[in-house]
């Protein structure tokens, strides 16, 4: 009959703990069975990451690091040398598949691409077509780094094919299982394949290595002695050092197996035994000097083993929540001293926290220039160039410079990001720059020069007004328009004052006054000029032919009505245009990439007011030109005509330069145009009269004017 236990709490197996086995394949089976009974199992060789799953294998522990740590070490090694284009090869078993899966998951989340992933066939030799196909693919994908995550038995045939195909100068990264295996480095010609790095479990204390070496020599001699005794037919070898009670004819063969005495593997077994011993010591209460004789149940021992924490030859032995030991790896490199193989530790990988350290001075690169080979699908782009994907591999790309106004953020090398509204960037930029704010500031030296000219003109206008006021009753002032002169000078002063709206950062008030103040003031001046020119023409040319016209003009206050009508029309036009499209401060970004222009928004409707003044200027030009043959005292046609032509020229220049000049240059052009117009009109109309008043007083008399009129009359009669 089979006895069914209600629970395993009081289950008493013959063994309360198991040490081993030495392979992942076997460990997966034994761990599944022993976990049912919560029998502690400590493996010294099985490293696959799945054994860390406590819900599946609650009683499994190990004294070798999990492949999770080995995968991290390989990943950091690839990153350390900038190898982003690699091939992954693994054995077709749990160890190889799980290792490559974990490594590829890390690589996929980083900047390293897997050019090809392949499997080393089982039970094959160098003639296997699959191996030849793998090696062919290695050469086609043009990689310089290959990671081989495999058990040691699958690797020798592969490297035999590599040697046959004369593949040299590559970098090979070996997993822990075969990195120091004698069966691999004994492959003929393997020293030509390139640089071989490998993962090796962190070495134990040197004194421990020396002790293992002594045990090795001692046991080899003892086993040989036992074997020779068997051959001689002796049944007992009690005098041997091992105190053998039974001789084995196969002992000599076991003693010669390659890698039989691997120091690290031996230390892992040693650590497992000590972990069980410490667990038993704690469970039985041996610390008091006498151990308990009570029954030891596996689940009790399991709890104690999980809690062990001791030092063994300066190596800390303890287990984490997954049953894994806290150990790192040594990074080893194969080297050849003639035909003799050796390995050298060129770096380390330590855990908690994960960190990799490499000593570059110890590395011997098997390349033409003696430098670390590059293994990339595409060369790195220049600063400011984005990557344009060429395939499903993110490491394969072409480089395209970021267009102006964008920059390449290091967090996303595949897309250029737009700069902010107040920023700019040239083509191929990695950063954005602040735009220069462009406007004609008060502190600009050019502004000082323009303001000085404007002030001088206003002082000139004031001086002329004073001069004309002091000589208001003289013929020169009366012929210039009399009291109308003061309206004309005042309008020119207002026109000049509009220039102050162009300086400094544009404001709502400045933008509102710029065009209307100039247009209305200048309209008043031009209306006065046109009225005065028309009156002179009427007196000297039209009065004789149509005297009623001039009388009606004067009787119905024609001059006042004309000036008022033009002014009202201009005011209405300005109000309408400002209401339709208000002139407000704005930031213009389209002038130049590196500028943000602060200006007053102007529309085509606003230019209508300026066009109106141009029409009045043209009318004044026609009237003044018609009076070229009038008496000299009343004839300012030449100077006024030139002044009006200059004004029209300035206006045309500003109009034509609107598209070409922006920012400060546009503002300066408008100010200079207004200054030039004012200077020309003052110089053509008022300055000649001031010259007569100040320097030729004999011409500022009624007699002189009568004489001039008489000469004009005689000339017409002749």
From TrEMBL:
<feature type="transmembrane region" description="Helical">
    <location>
        <begin position="517"/>
        <end position="540"/>
    </location>
</feature>
<dbReference type="Pfam" id="PF07562">
    <property type="entry name" value="NCD3G"/>
</dbReference>
<dbReference type="InterPro" id="IPR000068">
    <property type="entry name" value="GPCR_3_Ca_sens_rcpt-rel"/>
</dbReference>
<protein>
    <submittedName>
        <fullName>TS1R1 protein</fullName>
    </submittedName>
</protein>
<feature type="transmembrane region" description="Helical">
    <location>
        <begin position="560"/>
        <end position="580"/>
    </location>
</feature>
<keyword id="KW-0325">Glycoprotein</keyword>
<feature type="transmembrane region" description="Helical">
    <location>
        <begin position="609"/>
        <end position="628"/>
    </location>
</feature>
<feature type="transmembrane region" description="Helical">
    <location>
        <begin position="640"/>
        <end position="661"/>
    </location>
</feature>
<dbReference type="Pfam" id="PF00003">
    <property type="entry name" value="7tm_3"/>
</dbReference>
<dbReference type="InterPro" id="IPR011500">
    <property type="entry name" value="GPCR_3_9-Cys_dom"/>
</dbReference>
<keyword id="KW-0812">Transmembrane</keyword>
<dbReference type="GO" id="GO:0005886">
    <property type="term" value="C:plasma membrane"/>
</dbReference>
<keyword id="KW-1133">Transmembrane helix</keyword>
<dbReference type="InterPro" id="IPR017978">
    <property type="entry name" value="GPCR_3_C"/>
</dbReference>
<keyword id="KW-0472">Membrane</keyword>
<dbReference type="InterPro" id="IPR000337">
    <property type="entry name" value="GPCR_3"/>
</dbReference>
<feature type="transmembrane region" description="Helical">
    <location>
        <begin position="484"/>
        <end position="505"/>
    </location>
</feature>
<dbReference type="InterPro" id="IPR001828">
    <property type="entry name" value="ANF_lig-bd_rcpt"/>
</dbReference>
<dbReference type="GO" id="GO:0004930">
    <property type="term" value="F:G protein-coupled receptor activity"/>
</dbReference>
<dbReference type="InterPro" id="IPR028082">
    <property type="entry name" value="Peripla_BP_I"/>
</dbReference>
<comment type="similarity">
    <text>Belongs to the G-protein coupled receptor 3 family. TAS1R subfamily.</text>
</comment>
<dbReference type="InterPro" id="IPR038550">
    <property type="entry name" value="GPCR_3_9-Cys_sf"/>
</dbReference>
<keyword id="KW-0732">Signal</keyword>
<dbReference type="Pfam" id="PF01094">
    <property type="entry name" value="ANF_receptor"/>
</dbReference>
<keyword id="KW-0675">Receptor</keyword>
<feature type="transmembrane region" description="Helical">
    <location>
        <begin position="448"/>
        <end position="472"/>
    </location>
</feature>
<keyword id="KW-0297">G-protein coupled receptor</keyword>
<feature type="domain" description="G-protein coupled receptors family 3 profile">
    <location>
        <begin position="446"/>
        <end position="709"/>
    </location>
</feature>
<keyword id="KW-0807">Transducer</keyword>
<feature type="transmembrane region" description="Helical">
    <location>
        <begin position="667"/>
        <end position="687"/>
    </location>
</feature>
<dbReference type="GO" id="GO:0050917">
    <property type="term" value="P:sensory perception of umami taste"/>
</dbReference>
<keyword id="KW-1003">Cell membrane</keyword>
């Amino acid at each position: 009959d089979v006895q069914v236990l209600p629970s395993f709490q009081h289950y008493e197996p013959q063994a309360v703990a198991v040490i081993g086995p030495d392979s992942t394949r076997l460990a997966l089976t034994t761990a599944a069975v022993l976990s049912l009974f919560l029998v502690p199992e400590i493996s010294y060789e099985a490293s696959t990451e799945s054994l860390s799953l406590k819900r599946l294998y609650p009683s499994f522990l190990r004294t070798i690091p999990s492949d999770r740590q080995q995968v991290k070490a390989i990943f950091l090694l690839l990153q350390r040398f900038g190898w982003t284009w690699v091939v992954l090869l693994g054995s077709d078993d749990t160890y190889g598949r799980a290792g490559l899966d974990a490594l590829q998951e890390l690589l996929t989340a980083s900047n390293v691409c897997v050019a090809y992933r392949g499997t080393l066939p089982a039970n094959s030799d160098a003639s296997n077509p699959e191996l030849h196909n793998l090696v062919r693919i290695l050469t086609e994908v043009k990689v310089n780094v290959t990671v081989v995550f495999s058990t040691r038995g699958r690797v020798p045939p592969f490297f035999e094919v590599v040697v046959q195909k004369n593949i040299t100068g590559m970098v090979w990264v070996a997993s822990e299982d075969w990195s120091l295996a004698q069966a691999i480095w004994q492959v003929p010609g393997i020293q030509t394949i390139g640089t071989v790095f490998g993962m090796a479990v962190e070495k134990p204390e040197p004194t421990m290595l020396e002790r293992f070496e002594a045990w090795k020599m001692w046991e080899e001699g003892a086993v040989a002695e036992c074997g020779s005794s068997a051959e001689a037919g002796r049944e007992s070898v009690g005098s041997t050092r091992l105190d053998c009670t039974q001789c084995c004819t196969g002992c000599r063969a076991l003693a010669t197996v390659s890698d039989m005495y691997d120091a690290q593997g031996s230390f892992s077994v040693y650590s497992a035994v000590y972990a069980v011993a410490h667990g038993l010591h704690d469970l039985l209460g041996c610390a008091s000097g006498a151990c308990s004789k009570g029954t030891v149940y596996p689940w009790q021992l399991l709890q104690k083993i999980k809690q062990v924490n001791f030092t063994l030859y300066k190596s800390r032995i303890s287990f984490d929540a997954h049953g894994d030991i806290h150990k790192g790896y040594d990074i080893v490199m194969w080297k050849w001293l003639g035909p003799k193989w050796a390995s050298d530790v060129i770096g380390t990988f330590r855990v908690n926290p994960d960190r990799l350290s490499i000593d570059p001075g110890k590395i011997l690169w098997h390349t033409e220039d003696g430098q670390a080979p590059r293994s990339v699908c595409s060369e790195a782009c220049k600063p400011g160039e984005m990557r344009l994907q060429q395939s499903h591999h993110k490491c394969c790309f072409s480089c395209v410079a970021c267009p102006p106004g964008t920059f390449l953020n290091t967090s996303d090398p595949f897309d250029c990001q737009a700069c902010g509204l107040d920023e700019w960037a040239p083509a191929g930029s990695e950063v954005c720059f602040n735009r220069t704010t462009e406007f004609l500031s008060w502190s600009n030296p050019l502004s000082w020069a323009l303001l000085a000219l404007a002030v001088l003109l206003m002082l000139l206008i004031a001086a002329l007004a004073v001069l004309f006021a002091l000589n208001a009753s003289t013929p020169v002032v009366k012929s210039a328009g009399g009291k109308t002169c003061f309206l004309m000078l005042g309008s020119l002063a207002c026109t000049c004052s509009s220039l102050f709206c162009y300086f400094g950062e544009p404001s709502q008030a400045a933008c509102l006054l710029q065009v209307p103040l100039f247009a209305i003031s200048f309209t008043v001046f031009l209306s006065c000029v046109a009225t005065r020119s028309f009156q002179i023409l009427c007196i000297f040319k039209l009065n004789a032919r149509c005297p009623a016209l001039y009388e009606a003009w004067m009787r119905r206050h024609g001059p006042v009505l004309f000036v008022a009508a033009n002014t009202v029309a201009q005011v209405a036009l300005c109000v309408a245009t400002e209401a339709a499209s208000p002139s407000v401060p704005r930031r213009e970004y389209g002038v130049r990439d590196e500028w943000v222009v602060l200006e007053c928004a102007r529309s085509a409707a606003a230019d209508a007011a300026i066009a109106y003044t141009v029409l009045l200027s043209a009318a004044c030009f026609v009237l003044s030109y018609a009076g070229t043959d009038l008496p000299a005292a009343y004839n300012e046609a030449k100077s006024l005509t030139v002044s009006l032509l200059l004004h029209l020229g300035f206006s045309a220049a500003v109009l034509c330069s609107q598209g070409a000049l922006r920012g400060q240059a546009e503002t300066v052009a408008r100010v200079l145009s207004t200054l030039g117009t004012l200077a020309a009109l003052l110089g053509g109309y008022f300055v000649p009269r001031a010259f007569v008043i100040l320097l030729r007083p004999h011409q500022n008399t009624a007699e002189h004017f009568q004489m001039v009129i008489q000469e004009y009359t005689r000339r017409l009669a002749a």
